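Try this one yourself first.
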């Protein structure tokens, strides 16, 4: 599963909205997040994406960048538009180191990730944009508004990570 630990990302946008839960309105919000990572993260979605987007550099295209395990660092289809991934990932935990106050970390539970877009970059990196939907309280919403267009550090923990840790401890 897709997982990020202590990754620098840009908060592009924060959209506050209301959802109907029965007759009740519930405050919700969507964060648009953008990050650049090594292309191996694409294996979390499908093992074939990297082979579609990247190839080994040809002679004369060598770079000083590390090649990674398989050496797929050159874009195979440089004219290909960014790819959209049509899948939602519910149940994540999101921690954001805000930088607004010393050691301040915003924690959001039951976060759904969606609207993934992958853009292959030279050197074996991939730019990833996605939406994180959550139910922040008023105080947290205010802090998230302050982070728009800022670079922050986040950790995204998938829903099965806690169970796996607990199962290992019980064994």
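Now uncover the answer:
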């Amino acid at each position: 599963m897709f997982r990020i630990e202590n990754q620098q990302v840009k908060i592009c946008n924060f959209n506050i909205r209301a959802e109907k839960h029965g007759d009740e309105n519930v405050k919700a919000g969507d964060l648009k997040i953008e990050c650049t990572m090594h292309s191996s993260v694409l294996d979390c979605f499908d093992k074939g994406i990297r082979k579609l987007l990247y190839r080994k550099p040809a002679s004369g295209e060598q770079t000083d960048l590390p090649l990674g395990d398989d050496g797929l660092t050159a874009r195979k289809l440089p004219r290909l538009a960014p790819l959209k991934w049509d899948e939602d990932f519910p149940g994540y935990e999101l921690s954001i180191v805000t930088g607004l106050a010393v050691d301040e970390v915003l924690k959001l539970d039951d976060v759904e990730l969606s609207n993934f877009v992958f853009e292959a970059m030279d050197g074996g990196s991939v730019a990833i944009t996605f939406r994180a939907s959550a139910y922040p309280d008023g105080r947290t919403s205010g802090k998230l508004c302050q982070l728009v267009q800022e670079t922050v550090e986040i950790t995204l923990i998938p829903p099965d990570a806690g169970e796996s840790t607990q199962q290992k401890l019980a064994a």
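Discussion: The CA atoms of residues 37 and 86 lie 20 Å apart. The longest strand covers residues 4-21.
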